TrEMBL record:
<feature type="site" description="Cleavage; by autolysis">
    <location>
        <begin position="187"/>
        <end position="188"/>
    </location>
</feature>
<feature type="binding site">
    <location>
        <begin position="239"/>
        <end position="242"/>
    </location>
    <ligand>
        <name>substrate</name>
    </ligand>
</feature>
<keyword id="KW-0068">Autocatalytic cleavage</keyword>
<dbReference type="GO" id="GO:0006508">
    <property type="term" value="P:proteolysis"/>
</dbReference>
<dbReference type="GO" id="GO:0016811">
    <property type="term" value="F:hydrolase activity, acting on carbon-nitrogen (but not peptide) bonds, in linear amides"/>
</dbReference>
<dbReference type="Pfam" id="PF01112">
    <property type="entry name" value="Asparaginase_2"/>
</dbReference>
<keyword id="KW-0645">Protease</keyword>
<protein>
    <recommendedName>
        <fullName>Isoaspartyl peptidase</fullName>
    </recommendedName>
</protein>
<feature type="active site" description="Nucleophile">
    <location>
        <position position="188"/>
    </location>
</feature>
<feature type="binding site">
    <location>
        <begin position="216"/>
        <end position="219"/>
    </location>
    <ligand>
        <name>substrate</name>
    </ligand>
</feature>
<keyword id="KW-0378">Hydrolase</keyword>
<dbReference type="InterPro" id="IPR029055">
    <property type="entry name" value="Ntn_hydrolases_N"/>
</dbReference>
<dbReference type="GO" id="GO:0008233">
    <property type="term" value="F:peptidase activity"/>
</dbReference>
<dbReference type="InterPro" id="IPR000246">
    <property type="entry name" value="Peptidase_T2"/>
</dbReference>
Amino acid sequence: MSHIALALHGGAGTIARNQLLPEAEYEYRQALQQALLAGYDLLRQGAPALDAVELTVVHLENNPLFNAGRGAVFTHEGHHELDASIMDGRTKQAGAVTGVRAVQNPIRAARLVMERSEHVLLAWPGAEEFARQQGLAMQPPAYFFTEHRFAQLQEALASGRVRLDHSHDAPLNEPNKFDEDPKRKMGTVGAVACDQYGNLAAATSTGGMTNKRYSRVGDSPIIGAGTWADNRTCAISCTGHGEFFMRAVVAHDVACLMEYRGLSLAEACRVVVHEKLAPIGGEGGLVAVDAAGNLALPFNSEGMYRACISSYSPLFVGIYHDEN
């Protein structure tokens, strides 16, 4: 029997203490803890890792604080394009969707692609047609609308920029004040888990980039870039500037360093995040777990919304760089 373990992330970037009001910080920490415990309770009941990461991500997708599902950012055209992927480390099967607009929980659609189709990645509109046929819950555009995300879009449109953030960079009492750094906050959610049998799984979901155009797709629905799971090595879910994570094939690269060079989980993650990703301009981080239940949550940005727990380590919730 293995140690059960679960870790999650809710986005990475420039997250400074003086930019997050105490009330907002409390809300984020509570949301991260609730999602983590929901998935961990399943693991404690003997559920497979795949079920745990799916449920954890569903909780984050349902929370408008995060750039996934209900809290997704707006595209240039004023709608939402949602991406998600999931992978089973036991079988190395994977499923993903990209660009869906009405699916309440894209991570559930990704799992159905894996289990009920012959494919790995489906794109809108076909992905949405498939989800409807599978009976998944659909929502109108109003379900995904939040005032904060809409204000971000207006700011991005006015400045002519694509924003990589989904955040509250300004104090909550100044909702229309935005920082000019286009890489302040990368908004993606994800989870990795190890169940009692040593099986691993990973899941990732995102709303993408504010004001994005041309059906841009980042790393979150790309197996090997934003998501990876293999019982022989590790399970990985990434968050950050997707273009760089795709170029570096970050999730798979961590597994390769473990498999081919014999590095530990922690060392493989450190090499990829700090020595390979950072030098090419890739900002962000990841959460990782191996089949022994060891966890790693590295990032090279100022902060990352994150949480973890295992059968031999207590619950941890962190936001800032100096929290361990």
